[in-house]
């Protein structure tokens, strides 16, 4: 065992490591970091949402089985690398895909199956609340789900004792604390950044609606308390320890940081929590987060207003679909290789797909492709139908096909980013993370063309949200008195971090713009596919 491994082993056995676990859309990943904030072990679990009775959901037994599997694999990784058992950490934190609807009764039982962010079934409520609040309320926000259930006359609503998100639910079960980090809370209900809490005027406005309907609760009574990064969010209970680690090895009493959403962990993982910084997370869904200097001039239905983990206002462009269609075609190509008698290396396959896109025509050869597996509110689609179309003169070959795939993955995001550009939103640094950036250069280059700005990727980009969650756990117990999260990340975590930056290339920007013109004009075809297929 070398010196570094010996030092890491000592940190593990003395409980001086930090754990972050994120429940993403297709993967639950656990990341353990050491005193220098670098990852030292990980474990993951693949899962998929289910479409049941027209609602995208995950079963709660799958949540716990997935968490236990990811954590169990992390423990096995620790044992294999360092020859010790993981029994304690200095702090831990849990994050998940933002938004959605977890409604519990007074006995902590689910009133209805968990409704995820992916659902586009709250259009009536989202539109009505946006008008009432004069603040954009997207369909996936928890308050939109609640109000739609009220409008639908769903009988469970009057029995709600606690309304939270997936991250908030897991945190509650592990600690007994009904709390959320402010970034995650900002995806439930609008936040007053000056107070780092729910907007009081909007709370009162919604409570008036609830009173008119005869509901017995007020919002503040059923929603989580809001905490800023670094605050005390409770400790792991004995019951929580058994839920996470049925073997009984993990000890109770471990401090937890406030639970966050994947937006907040993405900002943390890319050091994009300061004003005029931004990050783009591109995986199953794609979103861009820009920390604002000042408010936008008006309400845009395409732009969400959320916050950093410390409550700073953030403009968020969120799109439901990103890499799903790329993943689907990767499985097609895997099947072809298998049929040819080969054993596919999926990493090599994805690398070839992305690198081929770089060889495609600037405008993807005239192809138009929609990657909508689910609805996409920015373009007004309540459902999705993946679709490839081309005029007779278009050139269909593998490089153009892959170029169209990558453009399509970011096309809806580009439509939203163009709005921010029109508002003269200043961005000094745009950081990319997530699976879209795992192949060097290519994803970065296409994203730069979409944003019309330089895009940087750190060597930790592939770690993404779970690593960001582990950093928030470390900040919870390691920050100096009065030290801000911005200062902690800049000086304790990212100082000296290797970063590669690519500026947008004129040919790529021009080609993407040509693709977007076709894409926008062809939305009627996608609409027809939704209606007839």
Tally of contiguous helical segments: 18
- Strands in their spatial order, largest beta sheet: 3-2-1-6-13
| Residue share in β-strands | 15-25%
Mean pLDDT: 94
User: What is Rg?
Assistant: 23 Å
Count of strand segments: 24
Summary tags:
18 helices, five-stranded mixed sheet, 19% strand, alpha+beta, 533 residues
Structural notes for this entry:
This protein has 533 residues and is α+β, with helices and mostly antiparallel strands. It has a domain at 324-413 and 513-532. It is built from 18 helices and 24 strands. The strands form nine sheets. It has a five-stranded mixed beta sheet with strand order 3-2-1-6-13. Strand 14 (277-282) and strand 15 form a beta hairpin. The protein starts with a helix and ends with a helix.
Topology summary:
Blueprint: H1 3-13, E1 18-23, E2 27-33, E3 39-46, E4 50-52, E5 55-57, H2 60-82, E6 91-96, E7 102-104, H3 123-133, H4 142-151, E8 162-164, H5 166-175, E9 179-181, H6 182-185, E10 191-192, E11 197-198, H7 200-212, H8 219-222, E12 225-227, H9 238-244, E13 260-261, H10 262-269, E14 277-282, E15 286-291, E16 304-307, E17 313-319, H11 324-339, H12 346-357, E18 367-370, E19 374-376, E20 381-383, E21 387-390, H13 398-422, E22 429-433, H14 442-451, E23 455-458, H15 464-478, H16 485-493, E24 499-502, H17 506-521, H18 523-532
Parallel strand pairs: 1-6, 6-13, 9-12, 14-22
Antiparallel strand pairs: 1-2, 2-3, 4-5, 7-8, 10-11, 14-15, 15-17, 16-17, 18-21, 19-20, 23-24
Helix pairs in contact: 3-4, 10-15, 12-13, 13-14, 13-17, 14-17
